[in-house]
Amino acid sequence: MTFNPAILTDNWREILDGMALTILIWVVGTALGLVIGLVVAVAQLLTNRWVSAPLTLYVAVMRGTPFLIQLFVIYYGGPFFGLDLTPLVAGVAGLALYGGAYFSEIFRAGFLSVPHGQIEAARMMGISRLDIVRHVQLPQMLVIILPALANMTVLLSKETAVLSVITVNELTSVVQSIGSTTFAFAETLLFLALVYWAFLEIVTAAARRLEKRVGRFMLRGQG
Amino acid sequence: MTEKAVNSRQIIDVRGVWKRFGDTQVLKGIDLTIAKSEVTCIIGPSGSGKSTLLRCIAFLEEYSEGEIYIEGELLGFSLEEGRRRRVSDAEVARVRRNVGFVFQQFNLWPHMTALENVAMPLKLARGMAREDAGRRARAMLEKVGLSARAEAYPSQLSGGQQQRVGIARALAMEPHIMLFDEPTSALDPELVGEVLQVMRDLAAEGMTMAVVTHEMGFAAQVADKVVFIDHGVIAAAGSPDQVFRREQNPRLRQFLQNYFERNVFWQNPDETAAEEAPAP
After folding, report:
1. Residues of B with CB below 8 A from A136's CB?
2. When comparing pLDDT for A218 and B123, which is higher?
3. Is B28 helix (H, G, I), strand (E, B) or coil?
4. CB-based burial label for A186 (10 Å; 0-12, 13-18, 19+)
5. Do A117 and B107 touch (CB under 8 A)?
6. What letter does residue B181 receive in the DSSP assignment?
7. Taking CB atoms and an 8 Å limit, are A135 and B120 in contact across chains?
8. Option in A118, A127, A218 nearest B125 (CB)
């Protein structure tokens, strides 16, 4: 058996479609996940236990169960609860809910990283709790949590492959079906690995640039 | 004690305040009034409760019992049929809107310049327009002698400069009273003077101030009233002359004795030599 990368170029159109869909799922799922994570973390910080207890349960369930099973429950179990979603919508929603739970924990750790005295000072000045989150806590903690956020974003890029089990034609399912029809497993699997690795490099580079921008005040000389 | 009439000159009126942390009694029935334009220095050993008292007056700590009035308004609670109920954070903020607080650790926001540190609360809490807030912030920095450092970040400022920004930030809100919680305790000794000078100027302008401090010289020169707290009670109070010279409370005398001994660093050279001479 010979190594024949031409298999991939022969099917470039399908592969491109699959990659576009993967990127779409990844970007939209991550963006929604970040929003969910931030809202959950802020709500846990600022509200009473009647609001925060269910949110803590949500985070525990999403972190404690496999993403594969969550997708099955949302897509195949959804109709029992009147939730009839297309595979793509179910998949993106699943990824957002799954990522959101992890993101919320990262944000929560970030909120705790800002010294309490700074928050006391802001409260003494009469600044509202939400403004303190926005103007005092978020700008400082972003520098600290950026690597963790980037890490989770990379993990989510690989989780998009799981959506193939609910019939979403993302990159992994497209390339695997090419592999199984042409028996070119080595070429297709290597290609998949390289693409996800490229995603990692892109996110890492973007995070580095962002870190420098957001962290400017920390790079200035001490004392 | 509640029959005391609310005096319009009184900015702060603390009545029978207790504070507990778990089983520990930190404040045990504090009564204290602070009149307009008065400078009150609160002294005492560490752990005596002096910082806790100041933090209760700012409602950074909830007091467990008693009443604290700020310009005639009960702070933090409402009294309904003799029972007290915690009011909302917004109501707390309203009652203490005229209270400025200066922290031992400065508590500046490190991601903002000195100017932004002073201007941001004006925009967010007072709804001032950007230009107006900037203008007032500059005026406040000038008042504490830092107009040249307006664009510097806290990490680029010395401790003394950071504390002056902290004072400017509190002053910008035009408080009726300024509370200082050991404002010079975190500073290198040679930076203490610049902060105390700013506080002297404020006192001379007639600002009402309550200062928790270990700077006995400052207390002796600037205070109208010195309050000595020990084990959660006010053990002595009065004019500086009364407290530092005439008051005979043994705990106070011991405290002052320790303080003076710590600050004597020059002895008669003969005595020192004799002490340091190796045993024969």
Report:
1. 109
2. B123
3. strand
4. middle
5. yes
6. E
7. yes
8. A127
d(CA B234, CA B27): 9
Distance separating alpha carbons of residues A1 and B256, to the nearest angstrom = 93
* Chain A residues close to B121, C-beta within 8 Å: 122, 125-127
Size of chain B, expressed as the number of residues it contains = 280
Please give the pLDDT value at position A179. Answer: 79
Q: State the DSSP code for B87.
A: P
Of the listed ranges A63-67, A138-142, A164-168, B152-156, the one predicted with least confidence: A164-168
Minimal-distance CA residue of chain B relative to A116:
B107
Most confident option among A166-175, A212-221, B186-195:
B186-195
Tell whether B64 is within 8 A of chain A (Cβ).
no
Beta carbons of B233 and B28 less than 8 angstroms apart: yes
Contacts of B278 (CB under 8 A, 6+ apart): none
Q: Comparing C-alpha atoms, which of B246, B226, B247 is closest to residue B238?
A: B226
C-alpha to C-alpha distance for A173 and A150, rounded to whole angstroms: 25
Indicate the residue of B153, B155, B173 with minimum beta-carbon distance to A125: B173
Give phi and psi for A56, each to the nearest 5.
Answer: -65, -40
The edge-to-edge listing of strands for the beta sheet with B73-74 is: B24-35, B10-21, B65-70, B73-74
Structural contact between residues B122 and A128, judged by C-beta atoms closer than 8 angstroms: no
Q: Output the pTM of the full model.
A: 0.84
Q: Say whether B225 sits in a helix, a strand or coil.
A: strand
Name the residue among A142, A141, A123 with its Cα closest to residue A132. Answer: A123
Per-residue confidence (pLDDT) for residue A84, from 0 to 100? 84
Q: At what angle do helices A12-46 and A171-182 cross, to 10 degrees?
A: 150
- In this predicted structure, what is the pLDDT of residue B83? 86
Instruction: Give the separation between CA B72 and CA B12, rounded to whole angstroms.
Output: 8
Pairing of strands B24-35, B77-80: unpaired
The backbone torsions φ and ψ at residue B210, rounded to the nearest 5 degrees and listed phi first, read -125, 125
φ/ψ of B74, rounded to 5, equals: -65, 130
Is the CB of residue B252 less than 8 Å from the CB of residue B240?
A: no
Q: Tell which B residues from 135 to 164 touch A, by Cβ distance under 8 Å.
A: 153, 155-156, 158
CA contacts within 13 A on the Cβ side of A79: 5
pLDDT digits (tens, 9 = 90+) for A161-193: 899 888 888 888 888 888 788 887 787 888 888
3-state secondary structure of B106: coil
Could you count the other beta carbons within 10 Å of the beta carbon of residue A79? 10
Residue B101 contacts A, CB cutoff 8 Å: yes
The pLDDT of residue B1:
40
Q: Please report the ipTM that was assigned to this predicted complex.
A: 0.87
pLDDT digits (tens, 9 = 90+) for B122-141: 999 999 999 999 999 999 99
Query: What pLDDT was estimated at residue A201?
Result: 92
